[in-house]
Amino acid sequence: MDKKDFKELDAVGLRDYYSKLSRSEKGRFLRYLVGEMGLGYNSMVVKFNNHGSFTKSDEVLINLAINNESLWRG
After folding, report:
1. Ordered DSSP codes for 2-69
2. What does the longest C-alpha to C-alpha distance in the chain come to?
3. Taking the mean position of all CA atoms in its chain, how far away is CA 23?
């Protein structure tokens, strides 16, 4: 992946992105993050709902998933 193709979102941008997904898309997105990226389901739900803060590694992995939507949108 070229650097020019990679758009990095901060924590606020990640929450905005997640909030704009439909209910079914949120489910697919979370299943992808848990199954393929190894992130914790409950932790992600809490963080996306602004009750926790993302670590830098969370942000990197989530940004990769967002920039490669075809992997989880199926």
Report:
1. -GGG-----HHHHHHHHHTS-HHHHHHHHHHHHHTT---HHHHHHHHTTSS---HHHHHHHHHHHHTT
2. 33
3. 14
| Residue pair 37/61 in contact by the 8 Å Cβ criterion | yes
The pTM (predicted TM-score) of the whole model is 0.84
Question: 63, 8 in Cβ contact below 8 A?
Answer: yes
pLDDT confidence bin for 12, thresholds 50/70/90: confident
**74 secondary structure, DSSP code:** -
Tens of pLDDT, residue by residue over 20-64, are 999 999 999 999 999 999 999 999 999 999 999 999 999 999 999
What is the SS3 assignment for 1? Answer: coil
